[in-house]
């Protein structure tokens, strides 16, 4: 806000400027009155210079000028004015008028100054108020601007709140919709849980797959109760035909000759869920029919899987055209999956039970098989101890029975290695013919003692294979022993080798009890006996045969026309080219003994140590025995043996540590160390090598193998 120009106030001069101006005016005006107009009685008034004080508003200057002009007036009248210029009346009139002029002027000017000051104060007050108004106006303008901005912000916030309200309303609707879906889903899950619990309870109580499948069909009706439908579970047999395992509420036609349902066949072939909304559009697909002549218009099917493979299918049929939804697809897949899981659990339980039964049978059989050779050994020893025995007759009996025990133990060890994938195959290029011939000759006494004829048909030319000769001989021996065990006296066992292209076929056949068709694959499983418990053997021979043959890259098959018609086992292996060198493999033959040695035998079993000592002494070796590690070290340092046969399971310090101590001492560092122990796993052999042993034999070791193990010792 600004005042009009007429109301403008002049700036008041400073005090020094006011005094200077007053003095100057007094001097000028006094000069003019005293000298310029010395004779003029009253041409000018003294009041005019005094008007300066109106501008300066200086009362002191006004008083000073008033006194100065009074003095000048007296000087003018009494000293300067010429005598006779004025008469007495004129003089006194001039004197009094001038003094009145000065006095009245001073008073008037003083009032004007006061009025001016009041006016200035009023104007200053007005200006202050105007400034305050201006500032208030500016503040109001600023506040208006702020209010405008706030108004815009409020408007924007209002819009945002409105938008958020709309979004919240939309979210609320979505949440409400989701809540409805969750309630529906919860109801569906509760229904599924109830169906699953019933399914599990059915499986637990009945333990029958048929009951589980029938409940699955009924559960499908419950899940799809909003549409008129029927359900069925189909199985695909080996001839690729469908067989109905369960159905509800209608029976399926075609039980005897098989069910025709092209759609279910496609679902099983493609291993996926599929559906047809209107079967009238697919007249090329034949669909299963119900016994009550119920006609279907729509179908959906899903596989029931075992181990990822479709072995059965669940089909839902609708009597009206129906568009299958994703939710219905998920329901069918869920039910089929749960059915598969329950059936799998049932089969596992039936197997975890079958395994227990077979284990019990195996333990009973093992006990029986161990007692069989122990009985004649015990009788022979009793006769020999009594002095009534015939050494020439009884010693071969003991030897045969000990060999039988060794075979049983070796088979058990190999079975353990096979099931843990630790059986070792050392392949080399070898002729199959001599391997089979040697195995046949080794098994001939057992076969002929059972009253059988043993026929061999072997080619005159070599049949070169990449095989482990010892393991392949074990295969032939197991099959011959199996044939001898299951063939009645007077039968015939035939061994032959033929070639079919790039394959060699080893056949071992017999005229024995034969094998039922359903048992042809089962007999190769561990602990399975063809004739059932008590028929002889441990039930691991054929499992070892299959495992060893498959490790050689071949396969074994069993053929039989049934019970009483004998059996034939065919082993097929790939034929190889003849080797460049026909030198015999060192690994396949025992090393020859080159001399007589000083041998230390260490075993805490005194009978075993004594028998070992007698065996070695009979072959010309000088032997010392010890029964623990400490005495063994004492004997070794004094005896200086060239070879040592060490048991591992010694009391206190075991055989591994004893071997390390012998290797660490310079007096015994170079002797040949042979481990003779009951621990025969591959890990045990590796641990023996790490401890410093040169060879590893598993108890009971053959005398020839014990003697051969000393073959690298230095000659005495």
What does this molecule look like?
The protein is of the alpha/beta class and 716 residues long. Helices cover 53% and strands 15% of the residues. The chain has a five-stranded antiparallel sheet, with helices on both faces. Strands 7-9-10-12-11 form a five-stranded mixed sheet, covered by helices on one side. Mean pLDDT is 79; it is low at 1-8, 582-594 and 712-716. It starts with 14 loop residues before the first helix and ends in a 7-residue tail after the last helix. The radius of gyration is 65 Å and the shape is elongated. The chain has four domains: 5-170, no CATH class; 209-348, Beta-Lactamase (2-Layer Sandwich); 418-587, Histidine kinase-like ATPase, C-terminal domain (Heat Shock Protein 90), CATH 3.30.565.10; 591-709, Rossmann fold, CATH 3.40.50.2300. Helix 10 (391-419) crosses helix 13 (541-551).
Short description:
By secondary structure, the chain is of the alpha/beta class.
How many distinct domains?
Answer: 4
The name of the CATH topology of the largest domain is Heat Shock Protein 90
Shape: elongated
- Structural category is alpha/beta
Number of strands: 17
Number of helices: 18
Going across the biggest sheet, name each strand in turn.
2-1-5-4-3
CATH architecture of the largest domain: 2-Layer Sandwich
- At the fourth level of CATH, the homologous superfamily of the largest domain is Histidine kinase-like ATPase, C-terminal domain
**Stretches where pLDDT falls below 50 for ≥5 residues?**
1-8, 582-594, 712-716
């Amino acid at each position: 806000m600004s005042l009009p120009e007429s109301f403008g106030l002049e700036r008041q001069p400073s005090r020094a400027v006011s005094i200077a101006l007053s003095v100057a005016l007094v001097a000028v005006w006094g000069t003019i009155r005293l000298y310029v107009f010395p004779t003029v009685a009253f041409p000018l008034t003294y009041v005019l210079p005094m008007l300066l004080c109106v501008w300066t508003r200086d009362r002191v200057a006004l008083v000073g000028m008033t006194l100065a002009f009074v003095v000048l007036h007296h000087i003018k009248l009494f000293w300067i004015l010429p005598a006779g210029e004025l008469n007495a009346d004129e003089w006194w009139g001039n004197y009094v008028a001038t003094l009145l002029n000065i006095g009245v002027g001073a008073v008037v000017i003083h009032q004007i100054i006061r009025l001016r000051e009041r006016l200035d104060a009023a104007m200053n007050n007005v200006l202050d108020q105007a400034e305050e108004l201006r500032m208030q106006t500016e503040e109001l303008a600023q506040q208006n601007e702020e209010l405008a901005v706030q108004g815009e912000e409020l408007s924007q916030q209002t819009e945002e709140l409105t938008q958020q309200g709309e979004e919240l309303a939309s979210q609320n609707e979505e949440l409400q919709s989701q809540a409805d879906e969750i309630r529906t889903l919860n109801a569906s899950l509760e229904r599924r849980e109830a169906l699953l619990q019933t399914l599990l309870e059915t499986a637990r109580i009945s333990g029958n797959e048929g009951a589980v499948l029938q409940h699955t069909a009924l559960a499908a009706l419950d899940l799809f109760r909003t549409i008129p439908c029927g359900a069925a579970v189909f199985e695909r047999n080996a001839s690729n035909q469908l067989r109905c395992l369960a159905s509800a509420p209608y029976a399926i036609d075609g039980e005897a000759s098989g069910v025709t349902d092209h759609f279910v066949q496609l679902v099983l072939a493609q291993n996926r869920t599929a559906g047809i909304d209107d079967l009238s559009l697919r007249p090329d697909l034949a669909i299963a029919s119900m016994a009550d002549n119920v006609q279907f218009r729509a179908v959906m099917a899903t596989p029931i899987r075992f181990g990822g493979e479709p072995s059965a299918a669940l089909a839902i049929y609708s009597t009206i055209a129906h568009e299958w939804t994703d939710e219905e697809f998920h329901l069918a897949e869920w039910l089929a999956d749960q059915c598969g899981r329950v059936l799998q659990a049932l089969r596992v339980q039936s197997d975890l039970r079958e395994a227990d039964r077979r284990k019990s049978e195996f333990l009973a059989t093992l006990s029986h098989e161990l007692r069989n050779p122990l009985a004649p050994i015990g009788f022979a020893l009793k006769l020999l101890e009594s002095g009534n025995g015939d050494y020439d007759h009884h010693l071969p009996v003991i030897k045969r029975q000990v060999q039988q025990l060794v075979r049983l133990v070796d088979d058990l060890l190999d079975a353990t290695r096979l099931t843990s994938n630790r059986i070792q195959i050392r392949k080399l290029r070898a002729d199959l013919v001599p391997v089979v011939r040697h195995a046949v000759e080794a098994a001939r006494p057992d076969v002929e003692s059972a009253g059988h004829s043993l026929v061999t048909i072997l080619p005159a030319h070599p049949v070169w294979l990449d095989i482990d000769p010892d393991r392949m001989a074990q295969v032939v021996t197991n099959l011959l022993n199996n044939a001898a065990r299951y063939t009645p006296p007077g039968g015939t066992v035939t061994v032959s080798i033929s070639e079919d292209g790039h394959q060699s076929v080893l056949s071992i056949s017999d005229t024995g009890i034969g094998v039922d068709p359903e048992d042809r694959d089962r007999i190769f499983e561990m602990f399975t006996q063809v004739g059932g418990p008590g028929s002889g053997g441990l039930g691991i021979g054929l499992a070892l045969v299959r495992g060893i043959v498959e490790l050689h890259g071949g396969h074994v098959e069993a053929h039989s026309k049934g019970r009483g018609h004998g059996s034939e086992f065919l082993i097929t292996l790939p034929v190889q080219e003849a080797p460049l060198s026909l030198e015999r493999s060192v690994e396949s033959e025992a090393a020859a003994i080159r001399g007589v040695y000083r041998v230390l035998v260490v075993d805490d079993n005194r009978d075993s140590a004594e028998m070992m000592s007698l065996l070695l002494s009979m072959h010309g070796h000088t032997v010392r025995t010890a029964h623990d590690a400490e005495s063994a070290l004492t004997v070794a340092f004094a005896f200086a043996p060239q070879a040592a046969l060490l048991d591992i399971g010694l009391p206190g310090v075991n055989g591994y540590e004893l071997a390390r101590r012998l290797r660490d001492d310079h007096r015994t560092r170079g002797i040949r160390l042979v481990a003779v122990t009951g621990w025969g796993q591959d890990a045990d052999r590796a641990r023996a090598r790490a401890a410093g042993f040169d060879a590893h034999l598993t108890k009971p070791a053959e005398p020839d193998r014990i003697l051969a193990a000393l073959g690298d010792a230095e000659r005495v």
